[in-house]
Write a structure and sequence with these properties.
Elements: H1 8-26, H2 32-76
Length: about 80
């Protein structure tokens, strides 16, 4: 499986969002270095779950379309 990689601007936006959340909700201030470690940890631990769910959603959508295509082919059969 390909590892999850965030672009630098995506990371920075995530750092800012997490810092704001932690300050507003938990009255906790983290520095840039600590935020980077936290985001890296979250990506490693949570990223695969979302990736796998995305694959499962894609698989379900493809199977649904395949069933529809199969029905269309059966309708084209001549008696």
């Amino acid at each position: 499986m390909k590892s999850t990689v965030l672009e630098q601007d995506e990371k920075q936006a995530l750092y800012n969002d997490i810092a704001t959340y932690l300050e507003d909700e938990l009255q906790l201030e983290l520095g840039q270095f600590e935020l980077e470690f936290l985001v890296d940890f979250m990506v490693k631990k949570i990223g695969p779950k979302f990736y796998n769910q995305g694959l499962e959603d894609a698989r379900a959508a493809i199977l649904e379309r395949l069933e529809l295509a199969t029905e269309v082919v059966y309708e084209l059969e001549q008696s």
